[in-house]
Sequence to fold (92 residues):
Amino acid sequence: MTEEKLVVFHADVKFETDKAFLVIYNGVETWLPKSQIRKKRNIEDKKWKFGITAWLAGEKGITADGEGVKTQPEPVHNSQQDEPPVDDDIPF
Fold:
């Protein structure tokens, strides 16, 4: 099994749809597709902590917060799941 790199960072959530979050990261609005979000936690009000694929982070110009880049086993996608599986070993 290969390991997937995650970039962990904080952003403000401006809007959420069924498929994506519109976030404000470093003063810039950007859409994050939920299919590329591996971890998320609401910290307070509109402030969230995300763990997204390194690929998406590179595409969006997002860099890791103090927690840096984490690795986790790549998820096995099941067509009947709404949310991608996550590894709870990543402290969130």
Summary: The two ends are 23 Å apart (CA to CA). The chain has one domain: 3-73. Residues 3-73 form a domain with the SH3 type barrels. fold (CATH 2.30.30). DSSP finds one helix and six strands in the chain.
